[in-house]
Amino acid sequence: DHSRVLNLVHFGQSSGYRSGRDRTLCKDLHERQKLFGLIGDIYITFEGGAGVGRVAVAAHERGAAVLPVPRTGFASTGMYCFPPKALQKPAFLTDKQWSHLKEERASFEDAANG
């Protein structure tokens, strides 16, 4: 049901998505990044820059699950102040699954199938 999807944007911006409804929640990108770190229960990160690092810190500090995909690089490998404890293997993953998320040489099929 696409009517339940909310695209969170900052003032004056549009998501550009064809599904869901845009909801303006904040004044700028920095404020949106802080807010994003406060609203989710699970965060999965792919690559990312300083903004992803800020969101991951806020989410991790309040106890949300943060699952980086380190094979994608940048913030998801620990750059941009990404929380070091979030870079450790989560208890809900097997060693093999974690290895597939970390290792660039693992095939995409292996990473998806664990």
Counting DSSP E segments of at least 2 residues, the number of strands comes to 4
> How would you write the strand order of the largest sheet?
1-2
What's the helix count? Answer: 4
Terminus-to-terminus distance = 29 Å
Overall pLDDT:
91
Helix/strand-derived category reads alpha/beta
Shape: globular
- Gyration radius, in Å: 15 Å
Largest beta sheet, briefly? 2 strands, parallel
Helix content: 25-40%
Order of helices and strands: EEHEHEHH
List segments where confidence is low: pLDDT < 50 over at least 5 consecutive residues.
Answer: none
* Strand composition percent: 15-25%
Task: Label this structure with key terms.
114 residues; alpha/beta; two-stranded parallel ribbon; 4 strands; globular
